[in-house]
Amino acid sequence: MKRIILTLVLSFLSFGANAAPVQWSGNGHYYDLVIVQLSWAEADAEAKNLSWNGLGGHLATITSQEENDFIYSIMPNGAYTYWLGGTQTDLSGGMDEGWEWTTGEAWDYTNWNAGEPNDDLGRSQDSLVFQAFNAGYWDDGDNAENASTFGIHY
Question: Per the omega criterion (within 30 degrees of 0), is the bond before 117 cis?
């Protein structure tokens, strides 16, 4: 099954874009959707290799409810999930501690789904997932899974 990648200003050379990038006036960043299926680590590497109009890419970071709502509003209908640029790098605390953005931005905002993060089925889930099928709530995901796609931010 193909998945959709949320990209915030993505190069159109590596993947075929579904539509033109959309700029959010709240932060000036661009967002785009691209079809592909990758693990979190693969998505992170791809995002960092992409550019658009001279802007470098990275996995999407969401730092406010308004940005979360905007991203959710541009998602297609369907049971899709998207990798975001959040990882749990410090596993010494609880499941909801030690999360950070790959960009170094402050981890001041979260939109966890009820009961998340939860390390489902006892797995170490240290990668952030945006649940488009669930009103844009967040979930912790297993880096090795190819079940989710990713977002890029410029």
Answer: yes
Range of the domain at 49: 4-150
Say what the alpha-carbon torsion angle 9, 45, 146, 96 is, to the nearest 10 degrees: -90
Percent helix, strand, coil in the chain (nearest 5)?
A: 15, 30, 55
User: pTM, whole model, 2 decimals?
Assistant: 0.80
- Among 4-8, 34-38, 129-133, 144-148, name the one with the lowest average pLDDT: 4-8
| CATH number, residue 111 | 3.10.100.10
Q: Is 109 exposed, middle or buried (0-12, 13-18, 19+ CB in 10 A)?
A: middle
**Distance in angstroms (rounded) separating the CA atoms of residues 154 and 55:** 6
Distance CA 147, CA 128 (A): 12
Looking at the structure of the chain, the number of domains it has is: 1
